[in-house]
From TrEMBL:
<protein>
    <recommendedName>
        <fullName>ELMO domain-containing protein</fullName>
    </recommendedName>
</protein>
<dbReference type="InterPro" id="IPR050868">
    <property type="entry name" value="ELMO_domain-containing"/>
</dbReference>
<dbReference type="InterPro" id="IPR006816">
    <property type="entry name" value="ELMO_dom"/>
</dbReference>
<dbReference type="Pfam" id="PF04727">
    <property type="entry name" value="ELMO_CED12"/>
</dbReference>
<feature type="domain" description="ELMO">
    <location>
        <begin position="145"/>
        <end position="299"/>
    </location>
</feature>
Length: 328
């Protein structure tokens, strides 16, 4: 829409020019006619004075077409998202559905009690149960923070400046399997999304994330990055439920920080195995079984390997010994 503005001064100038044409008084006219001219001029100027500024709207064809509005939501940090998500969860709503430990019977129960890992500290039980509750919280399209989380992950991985549409094939670029990320997130709930956000945004994971995401886009070795990440969260939850992480959580006096680093470390193990054996999606099942077995059996090695990779950009030597047993 274009707007033409005619000022009062312009209109007054035009009026004076028009009336100036009448200023010449023929000799046959009396002096009274000149006085009439002055009166008419004063009246005209007073009239324009009362008009002020007039706006004239001129529509054009181009201006009628709707504008394409590009939305750019605020990048959400992992710390902000974790605070928002945890504060919004009422663990009592999910208590009846939480399975925080494996129910063992007979000799398995006795063996686990005598030779298994220690029980998790009493002070950490509530936080442990909260992790399982988060895995039961579904992705909510109407929740602003949920939308910001998935948009942040997309923009961080792809380098896009602006948000992408809520639905569409573009989500496959970061490894979701359909037009709606919520479908893939059903398995591990909002915890799966929170850990993806930790992987994609936390500064400690920059090198790890770039390396994993790059191979996920490889011409022959590609795999769905986000879906694979959700599978890593599944391994994390199984490890927590089977008491594999109790000792580390007790030593570090926390659950979520341990789970996050164990998540990234397990994804790193999967990535190293994948690249070493030039695996393809057809090898996913076997690779996942071996990675889960190794992660649950050697969680401390998983964390040490992650720290070594973060510091040096390469994995520690123990991985070479283990990966020789993994199928290509």
């Amino acid at each position: 829409m274009m707007v033409a503005v005619i000022s009062m001064e312009t209109l007054m100038e035009e009026t004076e020019e028009e009336l100036a044409a009448e200023q010449f008084v023929p000799s046959s006219q009396s002096p009274g006619d000149a006085d009439g001219y002055e009166a008419r001029l004063a009246a005209a100027l007073e009239e324009w004075e009362s008009v002020g500024v007039k706006e004239i709207e001129i529509s054009t064809y181009e201006d009628r077409s709707p504008l394409s509005i590009v939305h750019c939501s605020r990048i959400l940090t992992y710390e902000e998202a974790a605070d928002i998500i945890i504060d919004a969860v009422n663990i009592s709503d999910y208590r009846h559905s939480i399975r925080s430990t494996v129910q063992r019977k007979g000799l398995k129960k006795l063996w686990h009690k005598l030779f298994g890992p220690p029980k998790i500290a009493v002070t950490l039980i509530e936080e442990r149960d909260l992790m399982f509750a988060l895995a039961l919280v579904p992705f909510n399209t109407e929740c602003q923070s949920h939308g910001q989380m998935v948009q942040t992950i997309y923009r961080k991985l792809t380098g896009n400046t602006y948000d992408c549409p809520r639905y569409g094939a573009h989500w496959e670029t970061i490894g979701f399997q359909g037009n709606d990320p919520a479908t893939d997130l059903r398995g591990c709930g909002i915890l799966g999304l929170l850990q993806l956000l930790y992987l994609a945004t936390h500064q400690d994971n920059e090198t790890v994330t770039k390396d994993i995401y790059r191979i996920s886009l490889h011409a022959t070795q590609n795999f769905p990055f986000a879906v694979m990440g959700i599978n890593m969260t599944k391994i994390v939850l199984e490890s927590l439920r089977e008491d594999c992480l109790n000792r580390i959580c007790n030593e570090r006096q926390g659950v979520l920080p341990v789970l996050n680093d164990f998540y990234v470390g397990t994804y790193l193990i999967m990535f190293l195995s994948w690249t070493k054996h030039a695996a393809t999606v057809y090898d996913t099942g076997y690779i996942m079984q071996e990675v889960a077995k190794f992660a649950k059996g050697s969680p401390l090695k998983v964390l040490h390997n992650l720290q070594h990779y973060r510091n040096n950009g390469v994995h520690s030597h123990f991985c070479d010994e283990h990966f020789t047993s993994l199928a290509a």
